[in-house]
Amino acid sequence: MTAPLTETGALGPTGSLIMAPFIGLGFGWFLERGGLGNAPKLAAQFYLTDLRVFKVMFSALLTAMLGGFWLDRVGLLDLNLVALPETFVLPQAVGGVLFGAGFLVAGLCPGTTCVAAASGKLDGLGVIGGLLAGIVLFDGVFRWIGRFYESTPMGAVTLADITGISRGLAVSLVTTAALAGFAIAEHIERRRA
Amino acid sequence: MNRIHRTLAIAAATLGGAAAVVGARPMISPTQLAAEIDKQDDHISAVDLAELIMKSDQTLRIFDLRSKMEFDNFHIPGATLATLSRLANDSLPHDSTIVLYSTGGAHAAQAWVLLRMRGYRNVYFMREGVYEWMARVSWPRLAIDATSKEKIEFERAKVLSRFFGGTPMTDVPRTSIPQGYWTGAPNDGALDSAGAVEQTTKVIRRRGC
User: Fold this and answer.
1) Residue A168 Cα to chain centre, angstroms
2) Is the ipTM above a cut-off of 0.95?
């Protein structure tokens, strides 16, 4: 059996709907256990005193990348069937800055907001209200920003596509960068402690 | 760094380093490509394409691989002029339904292989190229002694033909309908000659379609 099961037909729409809450609950549970439902801890990364968000996110990225690459390599996963989002350089850069600013102010990102709200934190519920208001606002102003939203398209590209290096080498370089990042983060935390 | 962290870091470094050495699995194997061609999963009929266009399928991308002059003269609605080198480099959403056509079928078939090798899944080409569109959508024909199955197919094509400004023709002598016109795939050139395509193009252009 080859993954992704939803794309190969092994898991139909009903099976996907049944699986989705389990995956969502699992994701939320790990975020909570990682301490990412706590706004002050999340905001601490911007002051370089607690870099757990960086480490958790890069660990997830590294695990998914290495897992995806090797499962595909041994034939248990078909990476061609995994959805690859499109890149729009300028709007995504602006969106990233906006996201970072919101993260700093709220101390939460969308996933951790849900975790915080689910564990009864009032700030989490407040940020969820802000998220929903933002969605409505975005819909209202899309007619004016739609052109910018779709500007500077690059298509569904990967690091290997952009740089011309092989996918294997790209995986190796990202792994090296992530491990170096972990070492630097640990060093910064020790100095700040 | 505790022992678990060190072990995980070594495991990640090993897997990451090995990735560069072994390289990625080829996007698609020649055996898989051959199987798709054998199963005839590689092509789409002009009538099926016309239906997708009529339904405004948002994932549909149609590429015309003929010359700019031929494209400017006539192209399938919604098609974009493309070259093999552009298709080899440009990125498209991976959930796109890509349809390729050229004058006949050869050039589009080459582009099909190229895009499948790049990992695009929903890629199809029209075996008879623009001729097929002309014959089956612009100018569908029904023989005077048509079978009931041919009549059903013709009714489907008639609706599409009118949508795209074509002219369905009925009571056509059987001899002017290529063998396999409705039921299978006629050979290259059997649907229409290049001259007839040009003539059809002129008629359509005069109508302002």
Assistant:
1) 22
2) no
